[in-house]
Amino acid sequence: MAAESETMDLESVPxxxxxxxxxxxxxxNNDEEEEDCSDLVDLLETVDDATKxxxxxxxxxxxxxxxxxxxxxxxxxxxALKERAVYALARAYCNDNRHDMVVTLLTGTTCxxxxxxxxxxxxxxxxxxxxxxVCALAPEALDMQAQICRNIIAWCQAEKRTFLRQRVEAxxxxxxxxxxKYGEALTLVDNLLLELKKLDDKQxxxxxxxxxxxxxxxxxxxxKSKAALTASRTNANAIYVSPALQSQIDLMSGVLHxxxxxxxxxxxxxxxxxxQLDQLDxxxxxxxxxxxxxxCKILDSLSKAxxxxxxxxxxxxSDRNAADISGMITGKxxxxxxxxxxxxxxxxxxxxxxxxxxxxxxVLVKYPHELQDDLLIKHHLGTLQEQLLESNLIRxxxxxxxxxxxxxxxxxxxxxxxVEKKLSQMILDAKFRGIxxxxxxxxxxxxxxxxxxxMENGLKVIENMDKVLTSLFSRSQKLRSMMV
Length: 484
Known about the structure:
By secondary structure, this protein is mainly alpha-helical.
């Protein structure tokens, strides 16, 4: 009997469920027939037609009318068309340089009906896509980007959309970093990290820790920058990371190794980041990686040729072929990324190899944007300039026991006050032994004498006595505390 009942149940199932798909199809077809969006499609095609809307200002009223149409259609087809209209309107405002309208686009009355009738996930997707598009179209308008982020954050707080607010706050921290507002960006990042660690949002933790590392690097806090980068890598190991984000992590790793003077390791990280960005065909981000690779090659070669280390010690050795970077800019890579940035780094390599300060300074004047706008390149080129100056001065004064400062300035082709100031700094830093006789305008150089053994032993005795007295003092304090 049980088998017969099971057979009857199985046979009855198709008879009761068979008509259901037909009913669903009818409902869907009815919805599609009811939602007539031909007028919205015509308006979007008008915007796409360059002959009918030759300028962005002509397209803006049409796109606004799509979003504020009186019929209030928000079906699947209408929502897709209005989503396209939001993206197109943001691009039109940026192309027309109406940045004030971009600021109020997402949080104003234009997009309010659309956001009120779509899901929160769709709203978050549109907001993030518009924000990325605006940042790509107007990369220099940082004030406008920051204001857009603040408006969206205020809107998210009013609407209680926590996840979207956190995403936009991470973007705002990145914009503030680009504006050199390190204190404000660091405060925002610290508060954001407290929330994200509770939620364990690893994807956003990777991005925020990376921004934190960049901020600490801008503040010259290398230890905190390395700790933040380590936290970013730890979270990245637990999830899938896109190649674009992985390239930024490798880029930051190379920057920190370059700051420590480990140019070979830094070059390998920069090469890894460059290859990933080259595959993504992201020229804007790949060019800085190529410049950093060339910088590492220059610094590593000159550290061997001039005897300069990451601590700034100088020598008199020279090898004019040491900073040859021609192999890095030939072939397909040189053709694809040729431009003023690569020319500037090639000129720096040539001047540094010749140890010509005059040519070096001329290159800095000729390419101010390419060499002075980047924090890492500006810092290391400034340090390299000081090291080249010290190396040249040591080479000039080496044969002399007494030489006129004006003669040294003429040989190095630099102003007398600059040379005099630099020589005094080198004497104070113990780069060589000597004095400046300003009355006669001469530099008196002393020979390096062996250190007096008696003085050396005496200093060791004093150091050991200091340790003994410190130990006795600490013990006496402990005894007093026990007696009390």
